[in-house]
Amino acid sequence: MIKLTGRLVCKSAEEADIVRQYLPEHKELTREETGCVSFEVTETADPMIWKVEELFTNQATFDAHQKRTKNSVWGRETSMIAREYEIPEIE
């Protein structure tokens, strides 16, 4: 299993608005992916920060998710937003 945990950190209200605009579709598409066990992106008490937790069945399904995401509307529209992630492989 591959688990990603971390945060999206916006620098401005405009970036936060972009996350709010594109996140619903990104969540829906990710949860439909083969190998996605769980996918949660939740706004924290700080409106500029989102908590991110992802779990995929293996490295191949995680890599496929990363590739799809990079080439998606979400990936293009949020590419400037800072991501602080840890990705340990779990048994």
TrEMBL record:
The keyword Oxidoreductase applies. This is Antibiotic biosynthesis monooxygenase. Keywords: Monooxygenase, Oxidoreductase. InterPro entries: ABM_dom, Dimeric_a/b-barrel. Residues 13-68 form the ABM domain. One of its GO terms (molecular function) is monooxygenase activity. It holds the Pfam family ABM. The keyword NAD does not apply.
